[in-house]
Structures are given as structure tokens and as C-alpha cells.
Amino acid sequence: MHPDEIPPGTLYLLILKTLARSGEMHGYEIANSIQRTSHNVLQVEEGSLYPALQRMLIKGWVTAKWGATAGNRRARYYQLTPTGRKQLTLEMTQFERVIGAITRVIEAV
Amino acid sequence: MNWLRELGRRIWMLAHRRQFDADLEEEMRLHLEMRQQEHLQWGMQEDDARAAARRRFGSVTAFKEMSHMAWGWEWFEHLAQDIRYSLRILRKSPGFAAVAGLTLALGIGANTAIFSVIDCVLLSPLSYPEPQQLVATKQNDSLQNVIDIQRQTRTLSQGGGVNIEAMDYTGGTQPIQILAAYVDAGLLETFRVPPMLGRIITPDEDVKGGPRNIVASYHFWQNFLNSDPHALGKTILLSGSDYTVIGVMPAGFALPREHADVFVSLWVAYPEAAPYRGVHFMRTYWRLKPGVTLSQAQADISTIDRRLAEEYPDNERDRETLLVPLQQWLTGDVRQALLVLFGAVGLVLLIACANFAGLLMARAIARQQEFVIRASLGAGRSRLIRQTLTESGILAIIGGAAGLLLAKWGTGFLVSLKPAELERFTGIHMDAHVFLFVFGISLLTGAVFGLIPAWSAARADIADSLKKGARGSTSSPFSQVLRQLLVTAEFALALILLVGAGLLMKGFSRLRSVNPGFNPTNVMTMHLQLPATRYAEIPPQTEFRRQVLARLNALPGVDAAMVTDIPFGGNYLSHSFVIDGRPQVPVGAEPETQTLSVMGDYFRVMQIPIRAGRSFTAMDREGQPRVAVVNEEMVRKFFQHENPLGARIDWSRRVGPHQWMTIIGVARDVKHSGLNQPVDPAVYAPFPQSDEAWRRWMTLAIRTPGASAKLLEEVKKQVWSVDSQIPVSEVHTIEDLMGVSLAQQRFNMLLLGLFAALALILAAVGIYGMMAYRVGQRMHEIGIHIALGAQRGDVLRLVLGDGAKLAFFGIAIGIAGAIVLSRVMKSLLFEVTPTDPATFSLVTILLAIVALAACYIPARRAMRLDPMVALRYE
To answer: pTM for the full model?
Structure first.
């Protein structure tokens, strides 16, 4: 099956949730994690993670620090901040409200 | 506070831009390599694995760019790029950069310098607390009247009078003359400046027979009291009496117009003058009560005037005291000149801006090709506009920086030239606000006029422009007309300035050629004042004068005489007088004449021709019949139908019988108060026959071919050999004094002349730039003309005609403007009408020549065109 584009505006939510679940991750891991947990349905254009991460850094939702991977290579690890956690809750509520609304519309007879 | 932290992170990123890029790069590379690794593990070929990883990642460059842009600094990076590009472009056309920068530098610098002076003199507050409450009176008054006004006023809180008198200070190595302010207790109080040390004179000390106390000025304290912090209580000898120092005023304090070394009570230092109501010798300053308007105070003063006139009809019948705000009163003399200069500043600024605008437009039009190509390569309109703005901004900053230097230097230059009237304003300095204002205006000009072409280029139809562009650049009719308007306006403005400067110059040369009525070359003058203590009566005064003159005339090459007040010396004494045998004139309505006492052969020494009768001789002395010499103006005014010789005159006297003086001669008119001042009637009388013992001062007039410091020492030695306690002051040559009296006019002329020259240069550059550009634009056309057999003369006419049209319109408009505007200058002109035809035509011709010369250079280039080159020219 061909992977789907992620719905616009949900990339932040996906990244936030992924980081919330797994703690520290670098970009490649985040991309893989999103793909895996969505059972290969959601596939981001992987490069687009990086501008998004930059914007999240500015907002102060995540912090980044350099560390070593299992293969002993330098990688930038991102981690959620308290502000990021609050943002995640906010985005979740919003997302659920929208999805709920959409579901009601398409299931209505 | 979130946005603050966010801003902090953004700034941190800007500072670590390099690191950021490297980090991002490494991060992305890692990502790609790990994905590639994964694909390899699945058994892909190396190349395929890499390609697949890239496909999944997307465009590395685009995402890098997006990551970068997320931080919001791309404008900054574009700006840096634009600046680099602009600098490169400007370096490639140094001529344009230099002319534009110079135009701005001159405009900004000159305007800031002049405006700083104007700002300080006209607009800055006085250095007294609550200065808006201070007023001066146009008329002098007597102490008795001042006291009555102080008692009766309901609108003035404080006020007082001052009279400056010379006093001898004999405490130093040589006797010197200092200036004492004879004041009443109200005066210093009025200015509300507290003394630096001690106290000021109190009302209970300001009485007849009060203690001899002085308040020293800072200057006096510094120079004669050696800046002694314990100077209070010290005793100093002034004009033969001991005075105690009770206070020292701070450094910044000075009376509005008068220079004073010390302040003393009039009642104490000069009790003879204090009780006289009719002698109006004090300048008075008042302070309005809070909330009182000038007109209320004026009404109040007028009421008091009427009351005084009723009470003392003999002296005060014609009282009409006028209150003037202090600031206005102080700037009164220079106000007109400064306002004209202010106008000139505005005109030059306009010209400079018009020039800058014209240069920018010409340049932008010439570079339209470049703009169109960049637009066709995908540059957005906003990016093109930003680029143009950056360029004019850089020019403005370069010009502004040069202008700043020029302004600093120019302000210093103006201050060093300042006429005596500006002497009081010691704090003149370059004003940063003014600079920013002028700089802002030039930036705005650059922005507006730089934008027009960029905007139209960005709008232009690219394909169309490129096609046309191949045949030389194009310019829209709109910007073409705008540029012509700018050049025309420059000429009009320059003409107005030139007319103004021309009128002032003509007036000044008229003024300089005015005959003062005597020969001013080789005359040295100095002032002597006899102390009242030892020279109270006339005989000892006469004895002193006679001995001094005898000793001076014994010096080789010296011809000396004395007079009360020397021409151009700034002093003037007048009396009301009566003529024997004429109908009685009511008291207070007698005519006035200048009065001068002389001794020695004053007319010969000064070389004042005697027109009729004879001059004084040594026989016209005490005990002999009283005689007088009058000037021609006196004859014109009062002896129109009568021979003045033999007529008898006397000062109007309240008491005692007349002591008639017989007129024995008529002397030529002398310009006593300045070359541009009218001559008043004058009466000369011998010192020894005077009955006014208070005329204890005299000015020596010494004609000598060899004026030198050595001679001056010799003169002083002779004076001191008669009386070693007499100070010799105000040593000048009469030519110096005349120079001082011309200084204001010279200052006006110089400034306006500088402006006019500046305007002329700018206008010439403007029309040159315009014509050079037009010729460049019309190369093809001209080439065709030549190829078709046009002669050089035809080409010259073609190009010159083009420029002449603009110059002609500019000059015509300028003449109309100058006729309207030059009226403002009327009061500054001496014997020149503001619409002087000679000046107007001369200026017009000058401007026309400059215009033609400026057009000729590009015209010559056009004339020498090789048609083959021209036709191929792009």
C-alpha cells in the first residue's frame, strides 16, 4: 500500500507525541518512529521534519543537545520541555475536536 | 515573557549562524546515511540506496533553506547581500557616488551648521529660570520711576534697573578700568540666579549711604580675586573707594545684554544720579507674575505711565513704556538676518534634495536594463525595491557622515565669524537634533526618488523592455518630466539665492564706500576716565587734559586731541537745546542734538573739514566767551534760512539763566553711529568751557603714521606721568572700530554668499547631470543627424537648446520668486531696493552662463560623435 501524506498541521502533533512517548530522539529516529507506529501509513517527507523541529526549538517546545548514537556517531537529540508538554495537550484536544467533528459529518446519514 | 525568551533564542541563533548551518548539515547527512544504510541492509545497490534515501528525504537544499528561514533572519542576510552588492556597484561608478555623496554632504553639513546657529540664537531658551516670564522695556527709565513701578504694579512680580559705568580698579599692577553694573536691589532678584558664593544686594543695603558692598561676576572673581573661595569679606579699591565683596555670581550668569564685572547699588555708588526722575539712564528688566499675559502687564504699565505723567508733567509727560519679551528683545537686531538665512537654508536643502533625486533617477533609468534582466531572472519586485533602497540608503549614510564632519567644522567656522551681536550666545554648538532632521529628509528623498524607477521597472513588461532596451535605455515620460521639473526648480531656487546674495553684496559695497566724514586711517583711540573723588570739579579736569595733550603732542610723529565719544566707538550723548531769539518751546519738547566736548585741535587730527567759519583755537578756553561748532545736519535742520555763524545756542536749562554759546564754525557731517546710520545734528564745544562736571571721561584721538605697541606704551607712560591712577582702556584704531560696525553686514553677506555659491554649484551639477544623461540617451538620434549631414553647429544647437529651455524656465520662475521674496530682506539692505534691476540682470546672466557651460560639456561630446560609433552605440 502506498503511504499517505500526513494531514497538514499535524506534523507538530506527531513529533510532540513521539517525543513524549520515547524521551530523547534524533531526527532519523523520529521519522522512523512515526512511520512505524502508524504501521507505515503515515510517511512524512523526512526532510520536512527539520524545519518543523527548528520552529519548535524557537517556540521552546523542545530542546536539542548533541549526543552519541548506538553506532557511536554524533547526533542531535531532541527532548520535550514542559512548554512542549502543555502544547501537546493543547494540540491533542484540538485535534480530537476536529477529528470528532469530521467523523460526525461523514458518518451522518 | 515568552516572546522575550523567544527573541533571545533567535538572537543567539543569529550570533551562532555558522555553527547552526554546520549542525543542520551534519544532522541531515546523518539522517541520509542511516536511511541509506537501512536500504543497503535490505539488499539494495549502493547507488539505488542513496537515491531512495534522497527521495524519501526530499530536497536537502530546500529544507535547509526552510529551517534557516524559520528563525526569521533572512531579511538580515538579504540586507547584508544588498549592501555588499550596492557597494560593489557604487565602487564601479565612483563619479556618480562622489557627486551624490558630495551633494548630500554639502546639503546636510551646511544646513546643519547654519541651523544650529539659528536654533541657538532664535529658538533656544534663555539661561534664566522661567525665562518666558522675563520682559525688557524698550525705553530706559530712571531709578525713581522704577521704584514707583515696583510699588504700583499688580502684574509684575519683580523688576529692576541697571546702568553700566566704568570704574577704576587700582588694586592690580596697573590701574585698569572695569565695568560696574549700577543696579537697584530688585535687578539681580529678577533673574532668579542664585549667587555661587555669598549673597546678592538686599533692599535695606540699597539706600543712600548704605554699605559699600559689591557682588563680583565669575569673570572678575577668577581674574582679579584669583578664584579665592574665601573672597567674601575682602575689600577692594574701586574708583577711590573701598568696597566689600559680599557675593560671587556663577560662571553662566550674565545680564541679558550688558557686560558687567561687578554689581553695586546705584544709591551707594552714584548717589548723585539716583534721585533724579528725569534722567532715564537705566535699562529695566521685569518678571511677569505667574499666569499674567504680556498684554495684561502692558495695560498695567500703561496705567502707571499715565499716573506718573500726571504727577510729574515736566519730566514724564510723554511716557510710553513698551514691554517686550526678553527673548524677542535680545534677538531683535539679528532676527531679520537670521530669518533670511533660515529661508536660504531651506532653499539649499531643497536644491540638494532635488539634485540627489535627479541623480538617483538618472541612474536608475540608466540601469533599467539591469533591473529588467534581474526581474526576468525571478527577482521579486520587493527585492528590487529593497536593493534600490539599500543603494540610496548607503549613499545617504556616506553623504550624511561627510555632512556630519562638515557640520561640525562649519558650526565652528560660523562661531569664529560671529558678529558682536552673537557674542552673548556662547553655547552655540552643532545640534544633533538638527542634524538628524536634515539627515532624515535626505534619507526620505533618497527613498522616494530611488523608488520611482525601481517600481516602474518592476512593473514593466519584461519582454517589451528587453526589446526596447537593445536600443538604448528608455525612461518613462513621467520620470522624464519629473527630472526636467527638478532641474527647472533647482535653477529657480538658485536664482532666488543668488539675487539675495547679490543684493547684500551690493548693499555692503555701497556701505563700505560711504564717506565717514573724516579720515579714519592712522588714528589710534583710547578711553580715559577720571575718578569722581579727585576730579569732581572742572578746573582739575581741564588741567589733567591740558597736560596729557601737551605731553602727547611732544612725542615725535604724534598729533593728538580728545573728544567725549569717538565716532564708531558706540557711545552717544545727546542734549535738548534752545536757540537764542527763537519762539519759546514748551518744556520737554525741545529739539535734541548730539553733544561732543573736544580739546586740542580735534578737527585737524580727525581731518574733519570745516565748511564755514573757523575751528577752535587754544584761546577758546575757560573764562573766554563760550563758543560752539555745529555740523551740517544741524544747519540743514535748524538754520535753513539763516546764517548759523554768530547764532547762539544753549542746552535747555531748568534752573539758572542761559549761558549762550556762539556758533563760530560748521564742520562736515560725521557718521558717528555707523556707516549705515543717519547723521544727527551735532554740537561740538570745548572741554574747558563746559559746565557739566560729570563729563569726566574722554577719548584720545591720536593720528600717527606709526601706530605700534611701543608707541602705545609711550602714550600710557605719558598719561600716568600726569596721574598714575588713571586707567587707559579700549585701545583701538578707528579702522578696527569701523570694521566692528560692518561686521554684522559682512557676516550676513558672507553667509548668504556661501549659500548662493553652494546653490550655484548644485544647480550646475544638476543640469550637467541631466544633460549628460540626455545626450547619452540620444546618441542614436544625434548619430543619425550627423550621418544625414548635420553640422557640428546644428548638433550644438540641438543639445544647448534642450538645456537652455530648462534653464530659461527656471530663471523666469526664479525671477518671479525673487521679486516676491527679496522684500523680506528690505531692512538688511543699505541703499539698495530689493528689486534692484542691476543685481537681477547680473545674476540672471551669471546663471545663464553657468547653465550653458554645464550643457556645453555634454554638447561637445555630442559634437565629436563619430556617426558610425553612435549608431552602434548601446
So the answer is: 0.64
